[in-house]
Amino acid sequence: MMVGMERNQYDAECFLLYYLFSSERRRGKLAALSIAAMVILVGVPLWWKTTQTYRAWLPVAQINELAKLQLQLSADVEVVFARGTATPEQQKKVPVTQTQDEDHAVDEADLSLHRLSESPCGSLVIYVIPESSSLLPENVNVYIGQRRTALLRIGAQMKVGKTLKQLLAHLEPRVKQILQVMSFSHNDITAALSDRVRFSPDNKESIADSMRAFKSSPGYEITFSLLNPDPKSHRLHWDIEGAVQTYIQPLLTKLSPVANFSLDSQILYYAMLGVNPRYDSSRSAYILNADSLAHVINPVEARLGSNAASSNPVLNFLLYVPDAHHSPLYIHDHKKREVQTNAFHSPRWGGIMVYNVNGFYQTGTNFPVDVNINMAKVMGVFLAQLRLLLGVQSTAPPSSFQVAPCGSSGLADWELDRLMWSRSVENVATATTTITSLAQLLDQIGNIVINDNIAQQVSSAVTSLQLAVAELEVGNLGFALQYSKEAILASEKAFFDPSLLHLLYFPDDQKFAIYIPLFLPMCVPILLSLLKIVSEVRQRRREKQAKKD
Amino acid sequence: MKILTLLSFFTAYTLTASVNIEDSAGQFFSSGHTNNWAVLVCTSRFWFNYRHVANTLSVYRSVKRLGIPDSHIVLMLADDMACNHRNPKPATVFSHKNMELNVYGDDVEVDYRGYEVTVENFLRVLTGRLPPSTPRSKRLLSDDRSNILIYLTGHGGNGFLKFQDSEEISNVELADAFEQMWQKRRYNELLFIIDTCQGASMYERFYSPNLMALASSQVGEDSLSHQPDLAIGVHLMDRYTFYLLEFLEDIHPASKTNMNDLFKVCPKSQCVSTPGHRTDLFLRDPGSVLITDFFGSVRKIEITMETINLTDPIKQMEENSGNDVQTENNTYVDQLPVSEIIHQKPKQRDWHPPDGFILGLWTLILLVFFKTYGVKHLKHVF
């Protein structure tokens, strides 16, 4: 009987313990489940959110749209028919504007015509004159004026034909040719797009052109330097301020819609050229051949200096006055002929001119000799070089064309238009490339932070680009250039922002090495308890199944 | 791999196109560059890494001698060996034993020095993302017609290069930086030379066009140093750069040596490690690339044929009529009031109640006193 009672007690205790344990166990299971729920529902999203990098929204769709870059350029051309060029029948169809006087010289006619219709930038006016006109000499069919006008000599009445259609068919290729010279040609546009389009030109000149001119930039620095290696013999005076004001500043003022220019000048003493010139007894002068010119620039460049504050490209113009022992000094080209200007230039760098002063004094005078430099001659050469380096000059026009000289400012209006066309296209292309590569970069590297200011710059660049493309389509060149400049500035600012540094590259094994010591000790008990719960549930279900059976 | 084959197809196509350009352009414009830049980086500090600084300075010296001006060189030295306390010959850095060649000279222009040489600054220089206040000499202002030479030396491993003994740059980061340079057309052609252990791993991941790379050793090999100098007490140069310098001493600005000769520098018999090179991303044939295309700065020249006839006389600059702005006479504030300093009386210090420490000390003394002699003596005090 004792045994039975003990056994009952034992059973009761077991039952009690079992009951207690099971509630404990249930509490334990609930605890494990709730911790797991906490971790999964609260912890993981929190960790995800806090380790996310801040990325502001970028207009990616618009950027991809722009990346296709379909540009349409339209230039306004006004064609004016002079008296005697069109038959009455043709005249009826074409609205008659005005007639002009034919007795003046061609450049006066050009000026007076210009005053008749002031054409906005980007557009052209072509005046068609009859074949019998005496304005243009015999072999010249087209005269391109200083402003935006051109005179085109039409063929004889018989050749052209009677109907309007024939007249227009006769005119079209000629007008197209004029447009290619005065506004833009296919080669120019392709050269401007050389960033994106693989440029395969057909002649040496176009390559040289594309390499020579500076790339489009919001500002340039121009430095004039006078190199005097022999101050003991020559005391040089140059009125650089006056010369710049008179000769260079008008050109720069005219170019102000294209870029900002800052000018400075300096005089360097004891600056040698670095190459020894050969003495040529036949001409009793010193000669520098074209091959040795390439080594002239480097030794001098170290002494030139530049403005430390800005990152604009620098154009250097050097005026070298040879020392008394090596005077006179002449430059020979590749064919051993003397160069008229006695100057040479280097693509994307600047120009050097050698100015001989031995003619200004006789031998035997007391050294040092005072020399006044003829700034008009010097600036003429520098201005020509400046035009080349800025990309104003282009391929030579066809032979039947006569181009007016560019006038006191050094730049004809149509040349400015030409520059503006290519600059606008170049700016639009560069800005588009910058924006698309920035979007691509930010897409590829997931952990760069994109701040709000960058997103704002990108959006404003995209807006400016769209406006520029629209204006180019319509033909408003001035506005197109302005918008394209804004687009470039904004896109460069966004791309080169110092905060966009992809230093956060972590290889995958490093990522594991960082997270495992943090999360593994926490996750292992949770995981194990969950597994235990799952296995118990499964076991109980199996027992229930067994009991049923 | 697929991308690499696609890229090689693309480069093959452009190679044919560019070959046509070359034929028609002639030798003069065949290289397509108008200016040269060099970025020379030494990444290690401490006296026993003297040889890395000497490496970088030797390349700097060669590059300057061949014509690249200081304004186009970005020189980054992580430590100052010339003025190091342990240098027995101050203001000199020698590259050959018996102190034959002082590569420090007297016109070295270091742009990033000491602790400024970091991975971040290096990447910023390459990609151009510098703060606006950075001066011109610390920037890489290259354009799409610049040939750039990049020289790195220091301690490296498989896929990384150590900077300043505390951080690393990986080959993926370097390849991405070059890709960003290409996207922004910051170079025409780029020559990358690295002299570290396992240097070939650093150029494995390049994928941008127009890159040529040379390394001093393959993956798994160490680059060894050349010779110690017993007077200075450290190894002076690394082998690869030593023989590279010897090779460059024979080059002058007009020489026509090409890249194939550069690949032959320092064979295994001299270098113990196997130098490697990579030219598959380069569009031109290495045999047609001159050494001076990267190490020197030969300018292209064109004769100016035209001039503009200027007939206006020079305008006399008119004087500024009247002074619009009142010029104030500014004076400097007395920077150093010497008289006051000399005749100064000692300042009266204000009285402060005693500090906690003093109080505690006194309390301790009192307690000890009264413990020893008993509390009844208190009445003698109060």
UniProtKB/TrEMBL annotation, chain A:
The UniProt record lists the keyword Protease: no
Cell compartments where the protein resides: Endoplasmic reticulum membrane
Topological type in the membrane: Multi-pass membrane protein
Protein keywords: Endoplasmic reticulum, Glycoprotein, GPI-anchor biosynthesis, Membrane, Transmembrane, Transmembrane helix
GO biological process terms, semicolon-separated: attachment of GPI anchor to protein; GPI anchor biosynthetic process
Sequence similarity: Belongs to the PIGS family.
Protein name (database record): GPI transamidase component PIG-S
Lineage: Eukaryota, Metazoa, Chordata, Craniata, Vertebrata
UniProtKB/TrEMBL annotation, chain B:
Transmembrane segments: 356-374
First and last residue of the signal peptide: 1-16
BP GO terms, sorted: attachment of GPI anchor to protein; GPI anchor biosynthetic process; proteolysis
InterPro entries assigned to the protein according to its UniProt record, in alphabetical order: GPI_transamidase, Peptidase_C13
Active site, renumbered: 155, 197
Pathway assigned to this chain's UniProt record: Glycolipid biosynthesis; glycosylphosphatidylinositol-anchor biosynthesis
A molecular function GO annotation: GPI-anchor transamidase activity
Gene Ontology CC terms, in alphabetical order: GPI-anchor transamidase complex
Keywords, sorted A to Z: GPI-anchor biosynthesis, Membrane, Signal, Transmembrane, Transmembrane helix
Cross-referenced PANTHER family: GPI-ANCHOR TRANSAMIDASE
Family: Belongs to the peptidase C13 family.
Assembly and binders: Heteropentamer. Part of the GPI-anchor transamidase complex, consisting of PIGK, PIGT, PIGS, PIGU and GAA1. Interacts with GPAA1. Interacts with PIGT; this interaction, via a disulfide link, stabilizes the expression of GAA1 and PIGK and links them to PIGS.
Protein name (Swiss-Prot/TrEMBL): GPI-anchor transamidase
Species of provenance: Gouania willdenowi
Lineage per the UniProt record: Eukaryota, Metazoa, Chordata, Craniata, Vertebrata
Gene assigned in the entry: pigk
